[in-house]
Design brief:
This protein is α/β, with parallel strands linked by helices and 308 residues long. The protein contains 13 helices and eight strands. The radius of gyration is 20 Å and the shape is globular.
């Protein structure tokens, strides 16, 4: 790939990056669970953990496991040296992953050095790594780090679409607006990148006034309310802790809850000091199902616009 050679984006038309300049807005949770739900529905899904924290492995239960979690080494070698990317197969049926982790810090430093010589090549490093394997998948999700500029730029250089999760607080909204600056920085290498939408996450179903204020602020910032997903993801502390501790997805936890003891049996067990299943898992699972359905509808609408 020379400096002026157009980059062939064949196969990369369903690469979706989840990005926000602020952490703690459920990027990893959404990446894992949306990917898991689409895989259950029959889509071939690749999840790319592009975060040095490697938390996607906690949500999917493979963190610190031999022969699966390489702490981001494979991804780092692909970015820095062009080594073939080797996704880990079948973390779930139809669901493959590229693990992240501490080695991505080294890759970020390498991208900074490369950018000093060839900024275009640095921005397209992830796109070049994904391109040979992209045709194996119906969709690829990239879980982006919140504050790592070289990795964020590489993720946006690869993505056809971006999703911006945000909380209702000011920090989440400012992180959202910071994404626009990142987008401006990759237009030269990825002019077709598009905003698939903004998802309000980790909110309370009772906080309607706050949600309305946030929706108005986001609509004003982007000039249209069309950027906002209608579906939101409620916050529920108990299932949020349970899924990460157990390495299961929310819909998997819901299945465990539904197959578990009845409420009166739970009370008896609690009296004996036995642990209980989080009963609010179904609410969050329902939210995620709706977001997944809306995501597919938005993807199809975007593809129809591109084709026309």
């Amino acid at each position: 790939m020379t400096t002026n050679e157009p980059f062939d984006r064949t196969g990369l038309d369903r690469v979706v990056a989840l990005v926000n300049g602020k952490g703690g807005v459920l990027k990893t949770t959404l990446t894992a669970n949306l990917g898991g739900l689409l895989a259950v529905s029959g889509w071939r899904v690749l999840l790319v953990d592009f975060d040095p924290q490697g938390n996607l492995g906690l949500d999917l239960g493979y963190r610190h496991t031999a022969n699966v979690d390489d702490d981001g080494m494979g991804m780092a070698q692909s970015l820095m040296f062009g080594a073939p990317l080797m996704p880990v197969k079948d973390i779930r049926p139809n669901l493959d992953v590229v693990p992240g982790g501490l080695h991505l810090d080294q890759a970020a430093a390498g991208l900074v050095s490369l950018a000093g010589k060839d900024a275009r090549r640095a921005k397209l490093a992830l796109a070049a790594a994904l391109s040979p394997v992209a045709d194996q998948y119906d969709i690829i999700f990239i879980d982006c780090p919140p504050g790592n500029e070289p990795l964020q730029l590489a993720a946006l250089g690869a993505a056809a679409q971006i999703i911006v999760p945000t909380k209702t607080d000011r920090g989440g909204r400012e992180g959202l607006l910071g994404v626009a600056k990142r987008l401006d920085s990759v237009i030269d290498v990825n002019p077709g990148i598009d905003l698939l939408g903004v998802i309000i996450a980790a909110t309370s179903s009772s906080a309607r006034s706050v949600q309305r204020t946030v929706r108005e602020a986001i609509t004003e910032a982007f000039g249209t309310e069309d950027v906002l997903f209608e579906s939101m993801v409620r916050h529920a502390e108990s299932p949020a802790q349970a899924v990460r501790e157990r390495g299961v997805l929310v819909h998997e936890l819901e299945e465990q809850v539904n197959a578990g003891p009845k409420w009166y049996e739970v009370l008896r067990g609690a009296a004996k000091g036995e642990p209980s299943q989080p009963r609010s898992a179904g609410n969050v699972a329902e939210d995620l199902h709706r977001v997944a359905q809306e995501l597919v509808a938005r993807l199809e609408a975007a593809e129809q616009r591109s084709a026309s």
